[in-house]
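Note to self: keep these together.
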Amino acid sequence: MAQVQGESESAFALLEEGVQRQLYRMQWTSLRPIQAEAIHTYAASSDSFLVMAETAGGKTEAALLPVLSDISRQPSGSVRALYVGPLKALINDQFGRLEELCTHLEMPVYRWHGDVPASRKAQLVKDPGGVLLITPESIESLLINRTAHLGKMFGGLRAIVIDELHSFLEGERGLHLASLLSRLKEYKAPGEPAARMIGLSATIGDPDVARRYLQPDAPSGVRMITDRGDQKEIQFKIHGYIQRPSLDHEPSEKAELEALSRLAEDMVEHCRTHSNRVCANAKGDIEILADLANGICRRESLPESFLVHHGSLSKEVRESTEESMKGRKALTTICSSTLEMGIDIGSVRMVGQVGAPWSVTSFKQRLGRSGRRDGEPRRLRGYVIHEQESGRVDPVSALPIDLLQAVAICELMLKRWIEPPRPSRCDFSTLAQQIMSSIAELGACEHDAVYRRLCSAGPFRAIGRQQFDLAINALTESDVVEVGPDGKMILGLLGEKIRSRKDFYAAFATPSEFTLVAGDQTLGTMPIRTMPKVGQNIIFSARRWTIDAVDLERRRLVLKPSRRGGKPKFVSDFGEIHREVRQQMAAWLASTAEPAYLDATALDLLRKARDVAASSAIGPRWVAPLSDTASLWWTWTGTREQRTLMAVLAELNVEAYDRGVAIECECRASELWQRLHRRSTQPLDLHKLASATECVARRKYDDLFPKELLIHSVAEDLMEPVTLSDYIGASAERGAGSSPSPHP
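Structure:
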């Protein structure tokens, strides 16, 4: 460290000798600016902080170096630092890094999840200390099953590090973790300082949301530590492919396979010399592309170098892929979002994206896996297929939506815009799970105490006392909760049954699945509703199989190798699209600029789409005729705003279909415009509109609650206030050849 100067040198001097010695051994010559700033911040105050930096920017060490240095002075007597990660694989990956950093500190490092041996867990319970790496679901298990030991285990907790913080700022899992950490803090020993919160992320669109998550009562006290270093060079290209129509003008598996085969040919060429990572939105595409690419490798006498990684594969198969990628061979993994969360698979030269990314946040996370070495650019290739139709085509089908979305997200990324998180406010399903969990943890509980714990002093603050009482009444009526003679709540028969289920520790619902077995090897799982039949051929784990037997009782599919295979049909669960993305799509459709990163086919698709736009009323705010009895309302807005507009149409008794960038309505254009114009003179009440929605039960335990509460939840968490007049043009009677305005 003799070469370290300035802030880096002074920060290094603040670290404990054991940490310094380990950095010497690891041949560190300097600290990165965010690491030096984090060390100074930690030493100078008791503030919590948020570290924001690009992937491979040193965020993990920025948090851990000062934490380890601090707790090394008194590492035993309690778990001193808690590291929370969203995935078991990430926990396992970081475990090795932490063990290495703690080599000279005589400090234990533990991990806690379902795959950790019971003996190692028992050791932590008996003699707690050091650092514990854990997932939210395992914290839930600890709170319920180790209640008597929690004071001893966490009474002296000094720091809580949340990795991939952006993944917890929205949805059930984030609210779940916030509640768990709030409950865990109740076990702080008297006189001990509150554990400071440290968040790590590369992609947070609104830091204030992250501050409130880390420190709800004093968000302004959360310090920001941001990497202000030079941005890496980004090199990317988007390749377009046209899926030709079948002779009978119907969707054809043969036509789809032909387009995917051309894509796979290019992918093999792009990936043959280095290790790469290719992301696809659909698990079925992951499997078929890996199979096609390996077939091309065999045909060209190349090594089969394409692997797969997604959540339906078994742990053993996923871990095998991760280890293989760390080797010296040039391999390419085709994966889902399972490799977005910082799991180390070694250095990759290029990241591919099959289909349009669904958010700038996800796109940046994926892009950040390439170019991790100093001085190396980040490289991306996008692969977008447009399904071409013949005959009379409606304007929505004529547009290359995926291409427009890919361009919009690329442009927003270049502008350094990221979707702001939208935390859940009224999630009664997760509240129900936390009520059951609290009762299981504490035994008989008073009604008021649970409300204070979870709502007034916990993360469910948007749920008022009246709504909480309605929720408890509903849980009591369904025998989830039982009120004893002393007025205290205990678990009822249904509550005990739910509590005993294996999936109770997760706040989100998981579909029932069949296990796929070949010989004595478990390959992974597949949802029941997509169960194949005996004799059917599928591709799974990048290999071809025939379904040899279906074991309904044990929920198993027995496979045997085959020369033939078909794409397995998985259920896709894509996220919400932000309004800014759709508006950017409309703007690029109306523009004349031609992005330099489009290949010839993609550029031709964009030009033809603009020709369609110039001859049709498809800009924002337009209500255009689709037929004598139907129309298209071009909204070009986000998923939540679109739900609100769909609810308006339901209120107006207009049958409608969500087409993404537009809404197809069973109503003449002129009549629809008049109805919308009249409705726009009255304010919109989201709760009244939500009452018209059909599917209000969408979360794990929603079916335990009355429609009244679920309507409130839909209005608060799934819909967005809109000004209806902003979505309606001046007239629906203007000719189809008129030039629509590119902006609302």
